[in-house]
Design goal:
The protein is α/β, with parallel strands linked by helices. The protein has helices at 51-60, 77-83, 95-98, 157-165, 178-181, 185-196, 215-222, 224-227; strands spanning 5-8, 11-19, 26-36, 40-44, 62-68, 88-91, 106-107, 119-123, 132-136, 141-143, 149-150, 202-204, 207-208. The protein has one domain (5-227): 4-Layer Sandwich (Metallo-beta-lactamase, Chain A), CATH 3.60.15. Strands 1-2-3-4-5-6-7 form a 7-stranded mixed β-sheet.
């Protein structure tokens, strides 16, 4: 089982494969770990953590923040909170109302950035995910969850078929169902163009693999069907 992968200065990625139903159906996802404040850590979009993962994180530093960045990536927040009870939990707007088990979490807001000197953040309006994007300036990395994909040969059988059917397997595309998730095109485009103004090259995604370079051009291509409309 692969552990934390360094992907930049003060930045790591952890990939885990999760069973998503009572049937043997699996999907992979990534957690991004960011060093903040010198020795603290932020866990972005937690994945299931094995004891070895918890030990590795403790060796890196103190987990200060656990972030559920959108309405869809929250399943493993409770486990992370149990492993790191001193951490602050921050959730996407509206997530706690949908999932009361996350009571005690604080709501992500642009006017209350978690680590303003090190991470910029922006809520992407006009999309049903209510996702907050993060920009890590030191490594020139944009950290996204379900607003970017890079699914390729690392995918399992179900993922391969699923993303192929939705036009996103080994292509610079978001799955086709995102067309239905845009709730306000004007607000989405405005928020998205603000992301593109950040000076990033690397792009972290929840599904697929990290785009180590060329992330801005790839992200623009993924959403060309909206930006060019």
């Amino acid at each position: 089982m692969q552990g934390l992968e360094p992907i930049g200065e003060g930045l790591w990625s952890l990939r885990r494969v999760n069973r998503i139903s009572r049937w043997p159906v699996h999907m992979s996802s990534h957690m991004t770990v960011v060093r903040v404040g010198g020795s603290d850590l932020l866990l972005h979009s937690p994945v299931p953590l094995a004891p070895a993962d918890i030990d590795a994180l403790l060796q890196l530093g103190r987990v200060r923040f656990i972030v559920a960045p959108n309405l869809y990536h929250y399943k493993f927040v409770a486990q992370a909170r149990a492993a790191f009870p001193a951490a602050e939990v921050w959730a996407a707007p509206g997530l706690v109302a949908l999932h009361p088990e996350l009571q005690g979490s604080r709501e992500l807001a642009d006017d209350h950035p978690l680590v303003p000197a090190e991470l910029s953040q922006r809520l992407v309006l006009g999309h049903a995910a209510h996702e907050t994007a993060f920009f890590h300036s030191v490594s020139r990395t944009l950290i996204l969850t379900d607003l970017a994909y890079n699914v390729g040969r690392e995918a399992g059988l179900f993922e391969t078929v699923f993303y192929w059917a939705h036009g996103a397997y080994r292509r610079r595309r978001v799955p086709r169902y995102h067309q239905r998730l845009i709730t306000d095109r004007a607000r989405f485009v405005a928020a998205f163009e603000a992301l593109l103004r950040w000076d990033f090259d690397q792009l972290c995604v929840a599904h697929g693999t990290v785009l180590r370079t060329g992330g801005k051009a790839a992200l623009r291509e993924m959403w060309r069907f909206v930006l060019a409309a």
